[in-house]
Specification:
- Helices cover 13% and strands 54% of the residues.
- It is mainly β.
- The protein has one domain (12-112): predicted glycosyltransferase like domains (Thrombin, subunit H, Beta Barrel), CATH 2.40.10.220.
- A six-stranded antiparallel beta barrel has the order 1-2-3-6-5-4.
- The longest helix has 15 residues, at 98-112.
Length: 114
């Protein structure tokens, strides 16, 4: 028997370069790097990272959505290791910034009204 779909928000296929910082639980910076988003939703996004991270790690990101640089932070919800391609990560956004929400809403509107 398969698990029911757990997503509550529509995913938008959107590839973008992302700078990330791995944070210690006390918010101290542990490591920085570059990755790529592969899809976005109102409460999360999927990333491809060159380095390994663990479930429940905290990440701070800066990503570009249609020319707007937006910073978000979140918790790593899941991790999949891909041979020769780094790590795929599901990030749950802990506090959704207004500018991120606005950009997602614009993308959703464009998707339904091209």
């Amino acid at each position: 028997m398969s698990n029911p779909e757990r997503r509550n928000f529509v995913r938008i296929d959107k590839k973008s370069l992302v700078s990330y910082t791995l944070l210690h639980p006390d918010k101290a910076e542990l490591e920085t790097g570059m990755g790529r988003s592969t899809d976005l939703s109102l409460k999360g996004l999927q990333l491809e990272l060159p380095k390994d991270v663990s479930t429940d790690d905290l990440l701070s990101l800066t990503l570009s959505i249609d020319g707007s640089l937006i910073s978000v932070s979140g918790r790593v919800a899941w991790v999949e290791h891909e041979e020769d391609h780094g790590t795929r990560v599901g990030l749950e956004i802990l506090s959704v910034p207004a500018e991120y929400e606005q950009e997602i809403q614009k993308l959703l509107m464009h998707r339904t009204n091209p």
